[in-house]
Amino acid sequence: MSGLPPYASFTQKLWYYAFRVICGVVFFFLIAPIIVIVPLSFNAEDFFTFTPEMLALDPDGYSLKHYNDFFTNPDWQQAMWNSIRIAPMATLLSVSFGTLAAIGLSQPHVPFRRALMAILISPMIVPLIISAAGMYFFYSRVGLQGSYWGVVLAHAALGIPFVIITVTATLVGFDRSLTRAAANLGANPVTTFAKVQMPLILPGVISGGLFAFITSFDEVVVVLFVGSAGQKTLPWQMFTGLREQISPTILAVATILVTISAILLATIEILRRRSERLRGMSPG
Amino acid sequence: MTATDSPVLTADGTPLKASLRRALRREKARAFLLVSPLLLFVLMTFIAPIADMLFRSVENGIVHDTIPRTVQALRNWDPGESEVPGDDVFEAFYTDMVFAVERKSHTRLGSRLNYERTGLASLFRKSGRRVGTFDTKDYADAFNMLDPAWNDPATWDMLAESEAASLPHTASAYATWLGVVLADGGDPLEEEPWDVLYAALYSDLMQAPAGGFENPLLDDAQSAATGFEPVSLREQFGAIDEDWLDPQVWRTIQTYAARYTPGYFLNSVDLKLTADGVQYRDEGDRIYILLFGRTLYMSLVITISCILLGYPVAFLLANLPLRTANILMILVLLPFWTSLLVRTSSWKVLLQQQGVINDILVALRIVDDASRLVLINNQTGTIIAMTHILLPFMILPLYSVMKTIPPAYVRAAKSLGATDWTAFWRVYFPNSVPGIGAGSVLVFILAIGYYITPELVGGTRGVFISNRIAYHISSSLNWGLAAALGTILLFAVLILYWTYDKIVGIDNVKLGG
Questions:
Q1: Using one digit for the tens of pLDDT, what is the confidence trace for B175-222?
Q2: CB contact under 8 A, B331 and A27
């Protein structure tokens, strides 16, 4: 598929280009909805479509007023701060518990490994609406419903599978003779972990953490049920905005979130390559 | 060395076998210790909530807890007869209702029973307002006239203890009364005994054999009580609403008296539990089978669209040089990483009647300005938006399977004379089927549990079963039904995951390519 042979027939040529056009259309379908909101968010009017001024590239057709609204509206600001308070705490919990468990799970002899794995991965498997329902029932019983810690614990549980998967994947290539060598040279287990094992698996831990962060940061179903008005996060505010009366400020928020996602994606990609290089695997 | 030789010893003299076994045990224990904090954490924050939901889908303690005496009395009532239950049931129900109203739990019971028989919620609410002003006040007046000691709670306290065997209703009513008064922060010795206690006393006295009491107070009361004008509680309830004289109401209460009920599960599949066994719900109330069917059908349509759109892209990515493929992969991964809400809001904006897509279609004169397409708040909207959202979950597993198909296979087929199509269809495609399977199961599982996107772009006809679960949790407050629907959905997903595990193995789940 890497190029057309010189002897290709007309039908082959036709199909070759038609196939590329089809793929191009699918790529367009994938990316266009995300790209299109970026210019729309600079709309000077409160419309959700391109105004004639915008199409004429007239500077008057563009403005930052929706961004201005996001940064001054107390509802959005409150939501942003709640997101900033909840996501890092949830990430911290999932990463610290998850990394420890991933190290345990990668030992050569783990009792009930499959069952343990199934339980720890389950928050990723169970549909969010079911997790949300269960957590709502149970957290109301124990008085966590509608509290900051309730949301943090729920989000930490949802982020754990991602940490487990990425960190165990990093540990697969880990050379255990390194820890033995460290022990041989007189390091105690804590020093061995801190000086030898941790630096090597750090890329995996960080990308697991980023997955957990984005899970919490983007999560809306669970927080809708487990949280109360005091824990209204950015996605929740967007959800309400979309359901009740849609305001163009949402497009500005969406653009900001797309930028954050793009940065996170780039970070994870760089970490993945670095990790593979460290473990002596070929990049890609 | 043979088995009869002395065992190999380690440096400290223990047999090597035992020493190795101990080391292995220690290693296992250490691994488990490392996992245990997280295991505990997940068990408490996640597994316990799921277990709670499973429990709630069958739990039905509310009837038994709110009106225990009635439940007890109804056991002796034969629902086969189309007659209203006897006075004992009404007496028990009166006692239960008075205390339930005081605890404000009768409206909750009414809403619970209303799921099974419409009208019971308002019946319970209405009766709750009236049950405190029944003619049982006449009993209280008559007993107090007879002996002022009856107005002193201490008398009741003494009798409830010493005569508990001969005054069962009075003793039990007094115990509950004491609890209610104390819970209210009142002093039971200052409180005037309520009418309900006198009614229970009257009923006990009438049932006891004449002259059977040692206590002169009771003996007097019994002989006087025979002269009281009896108050028919059945008529009192009938005066509130004649529904209380409808045997069907009592049959509903009797049917749902058990602590655990299959009722919610039956409701989830459009059936209901009645006194005459399991029946279909009324024609107009049968929505769940339709909703489950629609959820499955739409998830299937979404999965198929994902295969159709994802397969060519995965094929292209797997066969391009690595550098180009990595750049194009960004176009797949960026949507994958973008917030779900962002993608949904973008579709909401694009698909509107005054949105970008309709504007373009009108500008290109494909669609007339007057007849703009309705793309949102219906099934089309849900399918378009969800296909876009789930497409990366199809492309990524397909890509990783296609990467492993050696290009030599297709070349070999072609060198043996196969046309391009034959080489693809007979050689390449069968090798890529595991990828289609993995991607489809993944997309399908994610699709049937989706909530946000159908809620925002689905309107009324494009919603899934999960939207109904959310509705029952936050609006109708029928938590039992929400739990039962959730349980069914959960088991469907678990079965699908089991299949997925068989096809690809859970351990092979890859994130972000």
A1: 888 888 888 887 877 888 888 888 888 888 888 877 777 787 888 888
A2: yes
Chain B residue numbers touching A154 (CB-CB < 8 A): 45
Decide: A206 and A271 in contact? Cβ < 8 Å.
Answer: yes
What does each C-alpha distance from B306 to A194, B318, B430, B444 come to in angstroms? Answer: 45, 17, 18, 10
Question: Are A125 and A154 part of one and the same domain?
Answer: yes
Tokens read off for B17: 């076998």
A122 vs B470: CB contact, 8 Å cut-off?
no
Tell me whether residues B511 and A165 touch, CB distance under 8 A: yes
CA gyration radius, chain B? 35
Number of domains composing chain A: 2
**A47: chain B residues, CB-CB within 8 Å:** 354
User: Which residues in chain B (190-229) have CB-CB distances under 8 A to chain A?
Assistant: none
Do A81 and A20 share a structural domain? no
Same domain, A47 and A126: no
Residue A141 resides in a domain: yes
The answer as to whether A171 is a domain residue is yes
CB contact under 8 A, B37 and A97: yes
Domain that holds residue A146: 74-278
Domain ranges of chain B: 15-56, 65-133+233-261, 137-225, 288-508
CATH of domain B288-508: 1.10.3720.10
- A78: in domain: yes
| A143 and A51 belong to one structural domain | no
What ipTM is given for this predicted complex?
Answer: 0.85
Q: Is the pLDDT of residue B508 over 70?
A: no
CATH code, domain carrying A225: 1.10.3720.10
Question: Within this chain, do residues A125 and A37 fall inside the same structural domain, yes or no?
Answer: no
* Burial class of residue B44, CB neighbours in 10 A (0-12, 13-18, 19+): middle
Q: Which residues does chain A have within 8 Å of residue B38's beta carbon, measured at their own beta carbons? A: 97-98, 100-101, 120, 160, 164
A152 with A18, same domain: the answer is no
A101 in contact with B at a CB cutoff of 8 Å? yes
Q: Find residue B277's DSSP bridge partners.
A: B274
State whether B39 and A137 contact (CB < 8 Å).
Answer: no
Q: A100, B38: Cβ pair inside 8 Å?
A: yes
A104–B320 CB contact, under 8 Å: no
Q: Would you call A230 exposed, middle or buried from its count of C-beta atoms within 10 A (0-12, 13-18, 19+)? A: exposed
Name chain B contacts of A120, Cβ cutoff 8 Å: 35, 38-39, 42
Q: Is residue A242 in some structural domain?
A: yes
- The closest CB to that of B34, out of A103, A133, A258, belongs to A103
Which residue of B47, B339, B465, B466 is the best one to mutate when testing the A interface, meaning the one whose CB has the most A CBs within 10 A? Answer: B339
Rounded to 5 degrees, φ, ψ at B264 are -65, -40
Q: Do residue A47 and residue A83 come from a single domain?
A: no
Which residue does chain B place closest to A262, by CA atoms?
B334
Same domain, A32 and A89: no
pLDDT in tens, chain A (284 residues): 456 778 888 888 898 899 999 999 999 999 999 988 888 888 888 877 787 777 778 888 888 888 998 999 998 999 999 999 999 999 999 999 999 999 888 888 888 888 888 899 899 889 999 999 999 999 999 999 999 999 999 999 999 998 998 888 888 777 888 888 998 999 888 898 888 888 888 888 988 898 899 889 989 999 999 999 889 999 999 998 888 877 888 889 999 989 988 888 888 888 877 777 766 654 43
The secondary structure of residue A46, as a DSSP letter, is S
